[in-house]
């Protein structure tokens, strides 16, 4: 069935209306259940987004990594995922490792409150940059704590130059492809957010969170594995996935709080639930033209849709890591001794607040009012760590030597994941991922 772009898009139970003749990619997109760009569904890559919410700690990080490696039997080296981060209890060295491994980091507020202020949002972003080394231009996404977004929340992220929000739910009739808020919100209309004049934020995208219907047709959104026995949840998830895969191929989402899938002494063993999630991931990864992406990659495709056969050749789908001769504090194992940033991390201890970082420890515990206090080390002293500049990606930045190791067009990258075959030639290795030799290519700007 061919995909057609309607002359108007109107969401039920709302006053949402959008004219695609005036709202055009790449800067504007109407809410629609049909693929963008007039593509036929059979030509659309089936994109899957896996997200992890809340703080990053070692035990939770290990759980997330199990999900990252689950499709290795199919050749995928690294699933692209992204994580919404709240600042309390977060280890910033793991934030940097997550980003350096090719994943996305997004904002989830400083202290995970139900009605976040503008300061809650900006403080989180500042700490991710200062202590996690995430380039400012790469912190593009936001998710509201408890999914409790409001008109004010969306206005705040627009004022702070975020690219997208991913807090609204899409069930059946409102399972839209991502769209911009130029013409308002088209999801979760029961909150009143879709009423005329409530939200009009040009250029800000909404990436809906796509629900799974259980056996009673009740929408399950985050942590679907908690809603029933693993075999039942797997079947519900497969049914929801196949509906998209065999339909208009809207993105499919798997939304996780790793704490539910992590083993803790004295609590029930979560292994059956985790095994169910891993089995589901393996099943869908084996299908032709299924791609695990970040929301940033998804939106890059939305702005310029291409067929599944061309998807892997896009620059934003390359999975590359820098080739660096010595170990620098960048979240990677540069010298290949199986230790990341070995003996280079700073330990910042403030009683109940402790974290590791490649950058300077503050001279006092961060707070909402002062998320990035002055550093304990003096600029220019032997122990001082230099912040990531806006014109260098943190994977190339040496914070101790104060040098960007990629300043010309001859930066060396190792290709970790390459393009996957199309349905016609994917019988042997459906994901087609492999390692390739080192390449010398031009470095991308961290703000791209």
CATH topology descriptor of the domain at 42-320: TIM Barrel
State the helix count: 8
Looking at how many chains there are and whether they match, the oligomeric state comes to single chain
Estimated helix fraction: 10-25%
Q: What's the number of extended β-strand segments? A: 22
CATH class of the domain at 42-320: Alpha Beta
The residue ranges in which pLDDT falls below 50 over 5 or more consecutive positions are: 1-13, 71-80, 418-448
| Anisotropy-based shape | globular
How far is the first residue's CA from the last residue's CA? Answer: 35 Å
The CATH H-level superfamily of the domain at 42-320 is Glycoside hydrolase/deacetylase
Strand content: 15-25%
Return the CATH architecture of the domain at 42-320.
Alpha-Beta Barrel
* Overall average pLDDT: 86
């Amino acid at each position: 069935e061919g995909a057609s772009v309607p002359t108007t898009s109107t969401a039920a139970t709302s006053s949402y209306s959008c004219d695609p003749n005036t709202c055009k990619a790449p800067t504007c997109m109407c809410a629609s259940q049909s693929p963008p760009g007039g593509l036929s569904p059979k030509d659309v890559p089936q994109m899957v987004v896996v997200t992890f919410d809340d703080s990053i700690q070692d035990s939770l990080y290990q759980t997330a990594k199990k999900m990252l490696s689950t499709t290795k039997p199919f050749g995928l080296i690294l699933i692209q995922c992204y994580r919404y981060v709240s600042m309390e209890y977060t280890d910033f060295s793991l934030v940097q490792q997550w980003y350096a491994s090719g994943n996305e980091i997004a904002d989830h507020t400083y202290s995970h409150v139900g009605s976040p202020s503008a300061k809650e949002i900006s403080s989180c972003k500042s700490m991710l940059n200062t202590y996690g080394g995430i380039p400012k231009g790469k912190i593009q996404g936001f998710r509201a704590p408890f999914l409790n977004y409001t008109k004010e929340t969306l206005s705040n992220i627009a004022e702070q130059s975020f690219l997208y929000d991913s807090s609204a739910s899409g069930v059946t009739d409102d399972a839209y492809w991502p769209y911009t808020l130029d013409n308002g919100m088209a999801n979760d209309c029961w909150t009143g957010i879709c009423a005329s004049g409530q939200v009009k934020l040009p250029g800000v995208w909404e990436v809906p969170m796509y629900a799974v219907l259980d056996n009673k047709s009740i929408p399950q959104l985050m942590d679907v594995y908690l809603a029933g026995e693993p075999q039942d949840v797997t079947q519900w998830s497969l049914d929801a996935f196949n509906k998209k895969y065999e339909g208009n191929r809207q993105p499919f989402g798997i939304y996780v709080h790793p704490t539910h899938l992590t083993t803790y002494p004295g609590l029930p063993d979560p292994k059956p639930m985790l095994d169910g999630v891993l089995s589901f991931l393996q099943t869908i990864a084996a299908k032709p033209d299924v791609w695990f992406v970040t929301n940033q990659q998804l939106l890059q495709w939305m702005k310029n849709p291409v067929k599944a056969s061309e998807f892997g050749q896009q620059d934003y789908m390359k999975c590359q890591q820098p080739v660096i001769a010595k170990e620098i504090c960048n979240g990677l194992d540069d010298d290949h001794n199986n230790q990341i940033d070995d003996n280079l991390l700073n330990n910042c201890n403030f009683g109940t607040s402790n974290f590791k970082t490649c950058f300077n420890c503050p001279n006092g515990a961060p707070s909402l009012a002062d998320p990035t206090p002055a550093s304990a080390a003096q600029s220019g002293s032997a122990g001082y760590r230099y912040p990531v500049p806006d014109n260098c990606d943190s994977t190339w930045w040496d914070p101790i030597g104060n040098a960007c190791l990629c300043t010309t067009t001859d930066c060396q990258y190792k290709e970790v994941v390459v393009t996957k075959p199309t349905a016609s030639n994917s019988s042997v290795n459906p994901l087609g991922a492999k390692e390739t030799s080192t390449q010398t290519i031009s470095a991308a700007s961290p703000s791209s």
